[in-house]
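Input.
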Amino acid sequence: MPPKPEVRMNLLKSFFGIVRILQILLGAGLWVTIAANKYEGSVHFVLFVAVFFWLLTLALFFLTLLDKQDLVPIVGGERWLLTNMIHDIAATLLYLSVIGIMIYKTNKNSFCNLKHYKEMCLYTVYLIGSVFACLTACVYLLSAIYGSCRKCQGQQTVV
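Output.
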């Protein structure tokens, strides 16, 4: 039986739904920015974190949107809010390391931020990646705080 349309609309209009959509969009912005350009070294970890949490957030969002969280073994059902909260905390912590890597890479490539520099320069790519990483970490942190507040109030659902 398909989920009721009001369940979908309630999620999409809720704070949680809007934050999840922002996480998906900002995470995609980060990994597309990095993957579309030449990268090396520790930026591989940045790309791994961005793609991993983008896919995981997408899966959690669609499971919640389709109201199928009860079908997920062990972490679904009445534990769904806790699962989402742990996901958001882990994403926040790993995105903090991503921010550090991106800021380091931006500073390391700041020498080529000159008007007449002829070689390929990744400064703007890393700068844009740093901004996306910061915004994404903030949104995950906001979602983790929201989930914690709901859990402390004794609620069992994300919406």
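Residues 123-152 form the longest helix (30 residues).
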